[in-house]
Amino acid sequence: MRTIVSLPGDGIGKTVLPEAIRVLEAVGFQANYVHGDIGWDYWITEGNALPQRTIDLLEEHKIGLFGAITSKPKDEAAKELSPDLQGKGYVYFSPIVGLRQHFNLDICIRPCKAFTGNPLNFIRKDASGGFEEPKVDSVIFRQNTEGMYGGIEWTNPPKQVRDALETHPKMKNFAHVPSEDLAISTRIVSRNACKRIIRSAFEYAKKHGYKNVTVCEKPNVLRETSGMMLGEAKKIAEEYSGIDLWDTNIDAQMMWLTKNPENYGVLVSENMFGDIISDGFAGLVGGLGFACSANIGDTVSVFEPTHGSAPKYETLDPSIVNPIAMVLSACMMLDHLGEIEKSDKIKVAIAEVIKEGKVRTYDMMKLRGGADAISKGACTTQEMTDAIIARLK
Ligand code: NAI
Ligand code: MG
Question: Which of 11, 41, 247, 380 is deepest in the core (most CB within 10 A)?
Answer without folding.
Answer: 11
